[in-house]
Amino acid sequence: MRRGNRILLSCIYWAFVLYVFVPLLLMILMGFKDSKFIGFPIRSWTLDWYMGVFVDAELLSTLGYSVTIAILSTLISVVVGTWIAVLLEGRKFIGRAAVFGLTLLPALVPGIISAIAFRIYARWLGIEPGMGAIIWAHAVHNVPFVVLVVMARLSTLPKSQIEAARDLGADPIIAFLRITVPYLIPAILGASIFCLLLSFDDFVRSFFLGGYEPTLPVLIFAMLRSGMSPEINAIATVALVLTAAIGIWAERFTRRMNRDTNP
């Protein structure tokens, strides 16, 4: 019976792996097709579509624009999210549950509803569509994820370290900067990479709050309106490789930092 369960679980696992990775593999292969149309069989292969990604000035400008938005929105969300996490973790005050619930709300609201609400609110505040509006919306959406990750890390911080620092004469700010912040760095880094990828991949909020200059997901959507082509597959593959490389590096770096802070 146990052996049968293991076989069943293995079959389910490999079926899931195939379900996830086969579409990605097909997408990558279609970027090598020497034709303007998507479909099998691939009779001839070319690198032109992939080479074109790195020489297209408009595409590179859009990529830089998306990366800039992702970095700035991540910085804002990390600062705000860390501050809220420190405020909530280990403290009891009236309204704590309400503050925590409102903090997590942006992550629970469906994307399309959130984008419409941001668009209406931006117009009411007089914020013009463009980079500033997108950064604002992405940062608000990403704050809950920072709060959850940082609070989880804070819950494992040995209280004795803070008490020792206070006994040695450190005031609360010095104790926070010397003890708490270094301990939180792995969590902050992990949350930063997660927020960076979320912002880079965000389509709905970028579409509703963007101006004349599109982000990369919006540009791909605009290209899709004229039909699928190997060019779109090449662009998507390059974006996939970049995000996967960043994610793998962050995972390894975070694991190494966790070992260093928890010998």
TrEMBL record:
Residues 63-250 form the ABC transmembrane type-1 domain. The keyword Ribonucleoprotein does not apply. Gene3D superfamilies: MetI-like. The chain crosses the membrane at residues 12-32, 63-86, 98-121, 133-154, 175-200, 232-250. It is a multi-pass membrane protein. GO terms for biological process: transmembrane transport. Keywords: Cell membrane, Membrane, Transmembrane, Transmembrane helix, Transport. SUPFAM superfamilies: MetI-like. Pfam families: BPD_transp_1. It is found in: Cell membrane. GO terms for cellular component: plasma membrane. Belongs to the binding-protein-dependent transport system permease family. CysTW subfamily. This is Spermidine-ABC transporter, permease component, putative. It comes from Roseobacter denitrificans (strain ATCC 33942 / OCh 114).
